[in-house]
Amino acid sequence: MWRPGRSRDRRTVICIACGDSVLREDAREYDKEGNRWDRRGKEFEYLCADCDDERCHQPRDGLESLICSIESDGLAREEFLSRYADAVANDEAGATGRSERDR
Length: 103
Description:
The structure is a single chain. By secondary structure, this protein is α+β, with helices and mostly antiparallel strands. It has 3 helices and 4 strands. The chain has a two-stranded antiparallel ribbon.
């Protein structure tokens, strides 16, 4: 009789955050594209449970294109952060239909 149990997959993977080696079955898949359910043609990276618990699980749709549109050669960190904060605030205002002064 077959009994339910854990996978017999004893492969190990490396956590991309801390570098620890963990069993694949104990690791969390990380998809830098943000959609782990679309599995076609992807190679996933992995996080150990502790590192996965520490990361932000918020959606990242459009984040890379936003960062690329803000970046420029020689841009100071403070200026980049200021531009990023302005862009996010404008995006949120547009999504809610409110302007900054309405808040």
